[in-house]
Amino acid sequence: MSGIVTAIGTLVGLSTNPVTIIGLVPVFAASLAFMRYLHFDPESHPVNVRNVRAEYDFVVVGGGSAGAVVASRLSEVANWTVLLLEAGGDENEISDIPSLAGYTQMSEMDWMYQTSPPVESAYCLAMIGDRCNWPRGKVLGGSSVLNAMIYVRGNKLDYDGWSADGNVGWSYDEVLPYFLKSEDNRNPYLTKTPYHNTGGYLTVQESPWRTPLSIAFLQAGRELGYDIRDCNGAKQTGFMLSQGTIRRGSRCSTAKAFLRPVRNRSNLHIAMNAQVTKVLIDPVTKKAFGVKFLRNNRIRTVRAKREVILSSGAIGSPHILMLSGVGPREDLAKFKIPLLSDLKVGHNLQDHIGLGGLTFIIDDPISFTKSRYQTPSVIMEYLLREQGPMTSLGGVEGLAFVNTKYAPKSGLWPDIQFHFAPSSVNSDGTQVKKITGLRDSVYNTVYKPLKEAETWTILPLLLRPKSTGWVRLRSKDFKVYPDINPNYFTHKEDVLTLIEGIRIALNVSASQAFQRFNSRPHTMPFPGCRQYPFDTDEYWECSLRHFTFTIYHPTSTCKMGPASDPDAVVDPRLRVYGIQGLRVIDASIMPKIVSGNTNAPTIMIGEKGADIIKEDWGIPVR
Length: 622
Hints:
Layout: H1 2-11, H2 18-24, H3 27-40, E1 55-61, H4 67-74, E2 82-85, H5 93-96, H6 101-104, E3 113-114, E4 133-134, H7 156-164, H8 172-182, E5 183-185, H9 188-191, E6 202-206, H10 212-223, E7 238-241, E8 243-244, E9 246-247, E10 250-251, H11 254-259, E11 268-271, E12 275-281, E13 288-295, E14 298-310, H12 313-323, E15 326-327, H13 329-334, E16 341-342, E17 353-355, E18 359-362, H14 370-373, H15 376-385, E19 398-402, E20 416-421, H16 429-436, H17 440-447, E21 454-462, E22 470-472, E23 483-485, H18 492-510, H19 512-515, E24 520-521, H20 537-546, E25 548-550, E26 582-584, H21 599-616
Parallel strand pairs: 1-2, 1-14, 2-11, 5-6, 14-26, 15-16
Antiparallel strand pairs: 3-4, 6-8, 7-19, 9-10, 12-13, 13-14, 17-21, 17-25, 18-21, 18-24, 19-20, 20-21, 22-23
Helix pairs in contact: 4-21, 8-21, 18-20
């Protein structure tokens, strides 16, 4: 029960000492939480196997948004044995609560990566050391345990573009069935369309609670000429209420969705706190035959009879490949790692980037503030009815996909995404500073003066950046994190497109819908941008390079492509070029980043990748 008590203490902003909390929050509330957790989530957590066998048919490395799906689906074949290795532990009660998404970041569930200081272009200048934090899930369920649970599939033209580039089988019409296969949508008006489904493992729905500002956001979109629509449906451009991976008011991670229901399968073993250090590859036959991993301070080995599947994400998968001798010749030579396949591993790093802290002030007391919504009464509403502010999808109530003048003229492939939140950096400054790494001087100057203000924000995100970066080795020691350099803003058009997106966000605030609340932009400049007048191009570019904000969508570092593509790491069947028995199945295989949040597409990749493996081994798929 201590985890529940700690969660309650976190919710109300009290000490996390259980004795202190119990003295301040009724004991029955903690008991009720425990009963609710067992009653409404009857599926027990997966078993963490103590003893790993010497050999399995398949070894899946990484139990995150893709790996949990792959392991679950492969274990459907009863005579296949599957081992899932996860470097972190299990999710807990705090990670289950949607509104506490930020509290899992920079915790033991997080790899706590950071970007390297800028080399070619300035960014993250408002952060300590000019380094942006990059949370990545180090927990069963991976980043689906840390994220804001937003369910977005991307644009039809993203996938058709993949296919046109030679990735046979990856067009929109060919991937849509895999989105539908996973989904169990709980909003009836959505399930009546051909773009949603029920009965899958992954529960998707709108939050049962939102502020009045969410309706203003939709109305503002209509004023600006956009439709209110399901942006996961026939067309993407428009405004919508957020859809998220939640179930009965709680987070639905991939561990909860895909692993808990199959926890009793005897052919599926899950080993947590097991960090893979290297893929074992025969240097003569170039065949992967197992992995090395660290567990309980001991290096162990497990063999894979059929295949090794890397699902460690856009940072972890290239890191493991390079340590195993698969990567750029010149980079591996620096660390005297024997080269087994010379591939552009770690190249092509892409991410969605935007302006953090774009804040608007209103007069009405209706925004999401910690003092108003993290209270004992709100907690009780969540515990008793699975409703209320605690079900908020990481605070993101609305989404929009809009077109700047740089977007294709058809209007069908928007280039900016808005994340609308009825709160801002000032609402919980301590936690925001911890997550973002924002300098005290910046927070105290720009946001602390808003401590008592009613505020809301739009995060404008660049959907298809032209700037790309890299993941490179720093050491042959697996414990040393790689060099992560996203190279944000090296292409001027990325900056110009975002500036146009910011101005559309200003128009949202200026709409009649928001003027009912006397909405106006917060104009306090960052300390390094005071020389520029507000709302000039120079002002916004300076702001972007200071509060450079990512919602952690790294992709494309093990690029999928045909054999004719010199930058490809895996083929359209997700097999690593030059190595037998080794595949990569996660967000790193995206040739180009999708136009939207990456969690749902990564789950789709896991679904499709598992079917590809079954097909290649002669197993019929439905």
